[in-house]
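Batch job 17 of 40 flagged for manual review because the log was empty.
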Amino acid sequence: MKRLVTAFSVLTLTGLGTTAIADSHVDPAIAGAMKARQAHMQLYAHNIGLLGNMARDQIDYDAEAASAAASNIAALSQLDQSRYWPEGSDNSVDGSKALPALWDNLDDVMSKSEDLVMAAAAMEEAAGQGLGALKGAMGGLGEACGACHEDYRESDD
């Protein structure tokens, strides 16, 4: 039942996040890539949110749930994202926050992606080992995620 609720929540959030893209007049290939990458990011957010709530003591630590979320993050970090970023899918398209600088700095993006893989692996190892271990791994995971967002995602400000 827990997995069904989680799957339904992810599908609902993904649908809400991609409505603007589907309704716009964007090339279908670009719209599809944007939907895929936004769904991927929603899955990260769903799992990192659970871990973050535990780390901030907003919910009780649950080793099994923490381990599952961390394993999901590690698996997501390993997926090939190369088709998520076609030329023309930057923030000039409604629904995208990707800055054009991303396409000019693909080597840096790939390096940051590898940092995320390592941080996700560290979280996967730590998450089930106790709240202290989870809290210790959150900083590295947050830094790895934030590194790309700071440089290559339009600010919400």
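Reviewer: the log was empty due to a logging misconfiguration, but the result itself is present. The radius of gyration is 16 Å. Unflagging and moving on to job 18.
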